[in-house]
């Protein structure tokens, strides 16, 4: 890592501001309480659906705690990874797709490719093989958007990079806070 | 008639089943189908002399459209200026649309014969013949005339017949007579279309079966003929036909309608019947690698194939028995990216790795030995290719260079050229089967052509047809065509142009050595089937090509007999390695294919 930080003053989110499933389930429970007089079977069904399929919240949870390479903060706190920028299409036993759009903290961030690579590796390790992962820079947020996207989506380059021990060490330390 | 590729007969047992409507829809759907990369040229011959309704279906007012004569013959009436759909009907020859045609047999027969011999159809993909109901003079005559006219240019006068029926069992009784006629006249039955099968309400799009249901399917099963599909009654279609005028164009309006969507699966089944499509059947899945299989390669002469993997090893199998013969292990420190057999009688395998080196492994007596190690690339080697004679080995790398190595007498390798024109990683190299021509494809989206000009290898052409990384390149066995594939799933065919002008323009100061610059142009694009990168291409012969990629599909394409610029998809094998991507494919002999995927398996397929 370089001596001078790329971005001295990033915008940081508090932990409580991050979207999480606990909040969602609490909402569902409260809603359920109102409606249980009417019909409980629907609520159970919808909870079950949330558990079986992989959804955007689950992907977000997998990525949220990845450390930024420069700051002692996570990608979620820096808003590099956002829940609304994750698209998931889960077909229980067939080909499924995930697209994660990342928002670098500044438009000339040179750590962008590294962060994108880390996200890819994390998802490749955690998700079942049926998932095809795409990591892209969110439109308009980076000066070299096309180049970064091309690198992140070149299977051969990604595979070769992951065999590089030094790089692998950096990636592992970024993911050290993840469960 | 010699440029007509397929002749189809449309028959029905009874009148009033909507045969002309089915003929029209078949013509429009075929025209619009994406089976080739261009719209198909269709001709419709309406020999229903007592009720010539085809002109009306296309909005051609018979009093205004006249058939013109040329020295080559009668010119069909085209539906629009593209001349992709041409019509020929007795209706155009009658002085008025109110005239009836009250002719006896011989005159009808003569008319039909003239339609066959005197009309200049030009180049047609399909000629669809709309016949009168039942079986009669017209049917016999058309078969005879076609036989007489086309016996020396076609295998049989008619490629097949499509039968139209309505759902009631009564209508289907008459179709049995048609089936009998086809048998007697040796006409292949492509299938049955059940017309007026239900009514689509224009307000709620609900389909009601007015005329009972299931008749067509029952008939198909009873007589063992294919059931192509059912077409409902849609009042909107009738309206559209009636409201045509000189400014509307049915062939442009039709693809937007609901009817065309309903007809689409019928056309798909039709193609399936016409082309006798082949299939790929899984023979075996060979596991053993502990990581993805990056590359598979089959020996040109011996029954051997090899698979190279991320697990740094190479597994060599006997391609007849599928037994594991040897495992090359312990030489490379990183993933094996590519394997390639030297085109000689002995088993010599070049292995390229992400560790930047290439090892040459040979089977000497009964042992496999590593006989040479080629070093020099600065980082990962992406691809290797032996020249057809086995004397040169081309290698390429992420270091943006292409190296050409030459074998010396004592089987040592000397680097004879380092080519550096690409601005990014070079992903693939491939040799021409007969000339000393090397091509390379790169992350920079271009394809470079290299030739030996005596002193050195020089760049003779650079193609920029792709808009993303070029992953695969291969020359056809005859050397006339180069196929290339990219990261977006586009596959293009290129051929060299020979123009005297280009030689004159490139002034060469050295009159003894003509300019090496050459021009390659894109001659066709294959139908776009892959949804994602295409990583591997392999020619079976000049007319059959296979591709595979990140969408896990293996696709086989075939070119038309008469024209190798027209390609269609012959097999689309989805999920060939379940949900995993496929990195490499290679043909084994004439009827087997091996594929290597991210699941670490090499799968063997048989072409049926």
Strand order of the largest sheet of chain A: 1-2-3
CATH topology of the largest domain in chain B: Methylamine Dehydrogenase, Chain H
- The SS-based structural class of chain A is alpha+beta
Question: What is the radius of gyration of chain B computed over CA atoms, rounded to a whole number of angstroms?
Answer: 29 Å
Question: Tally the helices of chain B: what do you get?
Answer: 10
Determine Rg of chain A (CA atoms, Å). 18 Å
- Going across the major beta sheet of chain B, what is the strand order? 5-6-2-7-1-8-9-12
Task: Give the helix proportion of chain B (percent range).
Answer: 10-25%
Give the CA-CA distance, first to last residue of chain B.
Answer: 33 Å
- Mean pLDDT metric of chain B: 87
Overall number of strands of chain A? 3
Strand content of chain B: 35-45%
Oligomeric status of the shown chains? heterodimer
Count of DSSP strands of chain B: 40
The gross shape of chain A turns out to be globular
- The CATH architecture classification of the largest domain in chain B is 7 Propeller
The CATH topology of one domain in chain A corresponds to GMP Synthetase, Chain A, domain 3
Q: Given this structure, which CATH class of the largest domain in chain B is correct?
A: Mainly Beta
Family (chain B): Belongs to the Mrp/NBP35 ATP-binding proteins family. NUBP2/CFD1 subfamily. Belongs to the WD repeat CIA1 family.
Protein name (chain B): Probable cytosolic iron-sulfur protein assembly protein 1
Organism (chain B): Schizosaccharomyces octosporus (strain yFS286)
Subcellular location (chain B): Cytoplasm
């Amino acid at each position: 890592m370089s001596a001078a930080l790329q971005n001295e003053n990033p915008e940081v989110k508090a932990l409580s501001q991050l979207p999480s499933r606990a909040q969602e389930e609490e909402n569902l429970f409260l809603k359920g309480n109102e409606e249980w007089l009417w019909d409980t079977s629907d609520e159970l069904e919808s909870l079950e659906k949330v558990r079986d399929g992989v959804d955007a919240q689950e992907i977000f949870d997998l990525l949220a705690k990845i450390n930024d390479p420069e700051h002692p903060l996570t990608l979620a706190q820096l808003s590099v990874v956002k829940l609304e920028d994750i698209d998931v299409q889960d077909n229980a036993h067939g080909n499924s797709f995930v697209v994660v759009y990342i928002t670098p903290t500044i438009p000339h961030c040179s750590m962008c490719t590294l962060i994108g690579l880390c996200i890819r590796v994390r998802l490749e390790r955690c998700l079942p093989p049926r998932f095809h992962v795409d990591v892209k820079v969110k439109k308009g947020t980076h000066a070299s958007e096309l180049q970064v996207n091309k690198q992140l989506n070149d299977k051969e380059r990604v595979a070769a990079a992951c065999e590089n021990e030094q790089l692998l060490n950096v990636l592992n330390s970024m993911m050290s806070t993840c469960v | 008639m010699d440029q007509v590729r397929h002749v189809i007969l449309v028959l029905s047992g009874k009148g009033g089943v909507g045969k002309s409507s089915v003929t029209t829809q078949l013509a429009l759907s075929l025209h619009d189908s994406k089976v080739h990369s261009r719209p198909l040229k269709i001709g419709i011959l309406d020999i229903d002399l007592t009720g010539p309704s085809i002109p009306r279906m296309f909005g051609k007012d018979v009093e205004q459209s006249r058939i013109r004569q040329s020295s080559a013959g009668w010119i069909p009436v085209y539906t629009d200026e593209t001349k992709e759909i041409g019509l020929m009907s007795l209706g155009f020859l009658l002085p008025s649309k109110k005239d009836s045609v009250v002719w006896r047999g011989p005159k009808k027969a003569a008319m039909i014969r003239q339609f066959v011999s005197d009309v200049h159809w030009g180049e047609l993909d399909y000629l669809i013949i709309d016949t009168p109901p039942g079986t009669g003079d017209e049917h016999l005559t058309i078969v005879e005339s076609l036989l007489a006219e086309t016996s020396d240019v076609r295998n049989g006068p008619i490629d097949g017949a499509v039968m139209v029926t309505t759902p009631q069992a009564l209508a289907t009784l008459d179709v049995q007579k048609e089936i009998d006629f086809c048998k007697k006249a040796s006409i292949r039955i492509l299938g049955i279309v059940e017309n007026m099968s239900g009514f689509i309400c224009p307000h709620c799009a609900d389909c009601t079966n007015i005329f009972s249901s299931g008749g067509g399917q029952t008939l198909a099963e009873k007589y063992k003929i294919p059931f192509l599909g059912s077409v409902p009654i849609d009042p909107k279609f009738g309206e559209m036909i009636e409201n045509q005028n000189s400014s509307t164009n049915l062939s442009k309006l039709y693809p937007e309608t609901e009817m065309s969507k309903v007809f689409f699966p019928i056309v798909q089944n039709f193609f399936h019947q016409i082309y006798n499509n082949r299939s790929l059947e899984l023979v075996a899945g060979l596991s053993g690698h502990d990581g993805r299989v990056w590359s598979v390669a089959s020996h040109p002469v011996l029954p051997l194939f090899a698979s190279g993997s991320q697990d740094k090893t190479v597994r060599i199998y006997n391609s007849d028995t599928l037994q594991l013969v040897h495992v090359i292990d312990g030489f490379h420190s990183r993933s094996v990216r590519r394997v390639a057999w030297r085109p000689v009688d002995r088993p010599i395998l070049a292995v390229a790795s992400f560790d930047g080196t290439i090892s040459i492994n040979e089977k000497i007596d009964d042992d496999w030995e590593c006989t040479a190690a080629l070093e020099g690339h600065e980082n990962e080697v992406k691809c290797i290719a032996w020249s057809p004679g086995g004397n040169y080995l081309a290698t390429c790398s992420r270091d943006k260079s292409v190296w050409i190595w030459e074998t010396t007498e004592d089987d040592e390798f000397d680097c004879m050229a380092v080519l550096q024109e690409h601005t990014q990683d070079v992903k693939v190299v491939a040799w021409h089967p007969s000339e000393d021509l090397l091509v390379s494809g790169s992350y920079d989206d271009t394809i470079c052509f290299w030739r030996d000009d005596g002193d050195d290898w020089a760049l003779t052409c650079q193609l920029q047809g792709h808009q993303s990384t070029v992953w695969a390149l291969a020359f056809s066995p005859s050397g006339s065509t180069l196929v290339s594939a990219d990261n977006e799933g586009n596959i293009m065919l290129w051929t060299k142009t020979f123009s005297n002008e280009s030689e004159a323009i490139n002034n060469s100061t050295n009159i003894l050595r003509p300019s090496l610059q050459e021009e390659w142009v894109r001659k066709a694009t294959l139908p776009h089937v892959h949804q994602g990168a295409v990583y591997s291409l392999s020619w079976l012969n000049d007319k059959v090509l296979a591709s595979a990629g990140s969408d896990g599909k293996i696709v086989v394409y075939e070119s038309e007999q008469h024209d190798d610029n027209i390609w269609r998809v012959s097999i689309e094998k989805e999920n060939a390695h379940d949900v995993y991507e496929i990195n490499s494919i290679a043909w084994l002999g004439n009827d087997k294919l091996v594929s290597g995927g991210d699941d670490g398996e090499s799968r063997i397929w048989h072409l049926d």
